[in-house]
Amino acid sequence: MAKPLIVTKPVTRFKSNAARISLTTGALFVLLLGSLHLLEPEFDPTWRFISEYMLGSFGWMMTLAFILLAVSLAGSGVAVFSQVRTVIGYIGHVVLAVAVIGLLIAAAFTTDPIFTKMEDLTDSGKMHVLGASFDYSPLAFLLLRSAWLAIRHGTRSAGGFSSLPSLPLF
Q1: For 29-83, what is each residue's pLDDT tens digit?
Q2: What is the pTM of this model?
Q3: How many angstroms separate the CA atoms of 32 and 38, rounded?
Q4: Is 119 exposed, middle or buried (0-12, 13-18, 19+ CB in 10 A)?
């Protein structure tokens, strides 16, 4: 009998629901951000941070968008936690948790306008910058993907990076 290629734990209802929540809140984040681009066209997202939407009349929508993004990242982490069982995967989960905390901090504190000098930032602006600087979610997902590929291809001993050079990144 042939050995199965992918050896992972079965998906529980809890993890399936976490994945659904992640997808739903991620889609709502995109919808809210798109709405803000239409509602406040004076904020040009090509050269300004999306955090500045917090300064406008619809600032509550950007706060909600940050919270939705944090919930989406947390849901995806919960959904895949049992599927990546390498050191690289666990590091990816820690980085993802830090990103979630950073986004929640960024949501809790309003940013300052873009032209504010670093020494003139308000306490709220400093906290927002601190929280936003914790968002290393792209790195977290790269590490999680690497760990998942390692399990899928049976290269757990190298932490997953041994399988990356021969495989496309996306």
Answers
A1: 999 999 999 999 888 878 888 898 999 899 999 999 999 999 999 999 999 888 8
A2: 0.80
A3: 10
A4: exposed
Beta carbons of 93 and 140 less than 8 angstroms apart: yes
Rounded CA separation 164/154 (Å): 13
The encoded tokens of residue 134 equal 């914790």
DSSP string covering 119-131, please? GG--HHHHHHHHH
d(CA 15, CA 131): 27
In the block, tokens 């919930």 appear at 71
73: number of Cβ within 10 Å: 24
Please answer whether residues 126 and 108 qualify as being in contact, where contact means their C-beta atoms are separated by less than 8 angstroms: no
The answer to whether 72 and 29 have CB atoms below 8 angstroms apart is: yes
Beta carbons within 8 Å of 124's beta carbon, 6+ residues apart: 109, 110, 111, 112
Tokens for 113, please give them. 């306008």
Tokens at 24, concatenated: 């739903």
Which amino acid is residue 159, in one-letter code? Answer: G
As a whole number of Å, the CA-based R_g of the chain is 19
Q: What is the dihedral of CA 18, 107, 131, 55, to 10 degrees?
A: 150
Distance separating alpha carbons of residues 2 and 14, to the nearest angstrom: 31
